[in-house]
Amino acid sequence: MTSRVANGGGSGRWPMAERSILSTVLGVPPLAAVGLAAVLTALGVFVDLARIGGLGLIFTLCYLVGCTLAVAWVRRRSLFGPMVQPPLLLVVAVPAVVLLAGTPKPGAGIAERAIVIGAPLVNAFPTMAWTTAIAVAVGIARIGLQRPLDEPPAKVSSRPRGSGSASAAGAARGAARTSASPRRS
Questions:
Q1: pTM to 2 decimals?
Q2: Which three-class secondary structure string do you get for 11-49?
C-alpha cells in the first residue's frame, strides 16, 4: 500500500485525480456520470410528457439533480465532460424522448414535427441555462478547492551559481552516463 503523499496528498485514501467531491470517495468514470444524468433526464422528460403532455417540474428536478450529481460524483480529472453536458444532454434527450413517445403522429408534416420537437426545447431553455450555471459552478469549485497538496513549493537556493556544488552536480551527471564514449571537455 502506498502512502498518502504518493496518492496525491490530503486526508483521503484515493489520489486527488480519482476522487469525487468527497475526498474519501472514489469518483465514477466520466461515462457513468454522463449516463446517470442522461437516464435521470430521460426519465423526467418521459414522466412529464406522459403526465402533462409537456415538460414540467419532474423534468426540471430530474435534469438538475442528474447534471449536478454527475459533476459531483465524477473523477476530478474528468470534470470537463459533466460540466458542459447540460445543453448537449437537453438537445439530445428531449427530441429523442418526444419522438419515442409517439408524437408527432405519423401523418404529420415537417413543420408540425419541428414545432412538436422544438417547443419543449425552447420552453426548457431557462432550465438548461440554470442547470449549466450550477454544473459549471460546482465544477469550478471542485477544481479550485481540490488541489493536490503533495507538491512542495520549489526551493530557491541562496547560493550563487558557480559555487562548490557545481563540481558535485557535474560528478553526478557523469556517474549517470551509460555510454562508453570518451568524455569531451
A1: 0.66
A2: CCCCCHHHECCCCCCECECHHHHHHHHHHHHHHHHHHHH
